[in-house]
Write a structure and sequence with these properties.
Elements (H helix, E strand, L loop, with lengths): L3 E8 L2 E7 L3 H11 L3 E6 L12 E9 L5 E8 L5 H8 L3 E2 L2 E2 L2 E10 L4 H5 L2
Antiparallel strand pairs: 1-2, 1-3, 4-5, 4-8, 6-7
């Protein structure tokens, strides 16, 4: 169900805001009948909530420096991210005082499915 925000200016500088569970046309009809003063009806461009789930990859990385200090990172990345892109993104960077000289991908798991629309946008 759509949801609209009503802003009602009762007096100069005094505004009340509230939500109504209807569309913009129904909200305007309500405001014409029930509200005093100036008002504005604001509607979201997209409906609230979604049942569609986007695909992503869970990646576990082990990074290490020359001295052998290492740490593990868990990341959620785009489903089309390649190993080469991860190596390029982290090589030479400092993460928690560790200058990345060695990077190993320990886990690379796809969550969800890749739709044709999301695959072509990347």
């Amino acid at each position: 169900m759509s949801k609209v925000l009503i802003r009602n200016e009762i007096a100069k500088g005094h505004t009340k805001s509230f939500y109504l569970p209807c569309n913009k046309t129904e909200a305007k009809t309500f405001c014409d009948v029930a509200l005093d003063g100036a008002y504005s009806v604001l509607e979201a461009k997209t409906p609230f909530g979604s049942d569609t789930k986007e695909a992503y990859k869970v990646v576990t990385l082990m990074i290490a420096d020359k001295a052998g200090k290492k740490m593990y990172l868990n990341l959620a990345v785009k489903p089309t991210t390649t190993e080469a892109e991860l190596y390029t993104a982290f090589e030479g960077k400092t993460v928690n005082t560790i200058v990345v000289k060695k990077l190993a991908i320990l886990r690379d798991k796809l969550i969800g499915t890749i739709s044709k629309a999301s695959d072509s946008s990347n």
